[in-house]
Design a protein that fits this description.
218 residues, mainly alpha
Length: 218
């Protein structure tokens, strides 16, 4: 009777590691398919600014129409546009739209609170400080437009001037002529924002430059 030879595999040394096959990492690119919210914000700002400055220019008294625009289109619509720009990682546009949307809401609040006997009215000095702060903010934002386009430079440049004119008018107790002049300057600002917003809509729809924005070469 013969013994059957037993063949066994040699043990794997403890100091020898088994090679691991590494796979290449997979890169997933997510394409942003959401719409451009900038026209909404620009039109909300521009149309409300035009209506308010028609009042400042002396065409009609301050009324519920202006307040409603300030709450709905100038206020809420701009805040929505700013949140959409934030989701697109556009810091400049998000800051601008949300800030100016809340500006309109705060301006309406300044007018309505005294009417409801919830607060004393802001005097001329307080309003001049309020408007000057917004002018300072807008002036700094204006510097950022030199990296964007000429149309936005006009919007922010005229808006900076408008805020400081309004602030001076309240501080110095300017007469009707100065306030009417300020209103006309505000009309230029408002219509420039309307142009910039509609230009983006038409240029996107037609796939070409219909209304130029004056893009700045970086």
């Amino acid at each position: 009777m013969t013994d059957t030879a037993r063949i066994s595999k040699p043990p794997i040394p403890l100091n020898k590691s088994t090679p691991t096959i590494m796979s290449e990492p997979t890169v997933i690119q997510i394409k942003d398919t959401t719409a451009n919210p900038a026209p909404l914000g620009l039109l909300g700002f521009g149309m409300t600014t035009v209506l308010l400055n028609l009042h400042n220019a002396g065409f009609f008294e301050l009324n519920a129409m202006i307040l409603a625009m300030g709450i709905c289109y100038g206020g809420i619509a701009q805040v929505i546009a700013g949140i959409m720009e934030w989701k697109k990682s556009n810091t400049f546009a998000a800051t601008a739209f949300i800030s100016y949307g809340l500006f309109w809401l705060s301006l309406v609040t300044l007018i309505v609170l005294p009417k409801l006997n919830l607060s004393a009215s802001a005097d001329e000095t307080a309003m001049s400080a309020y408007l000057a702060m917004w002018g300072l903010f807008t002036g700094v934002m204006f510097l950022g437009t030199f990296r964007l386009n000429r149309a936005l430079q006009v919007v922010f440049g005229t808006l900076t001037i408008l805020f400081f004119l309004l602030a001076y008018g309240d501080f110095a107790g300017a007469g009707a002529g100065f306030k009417h002049f300020t209103g006309y300057e505000g009309l230029v600002c408002g219509f420039s924002a309307i142009y910039t917003g509609l230009a983006q809509v038409l240029n996107e729809l037609y796939g070409k430059i219909v209304l130029p924005l004056g893009v700045v070469k970086k």
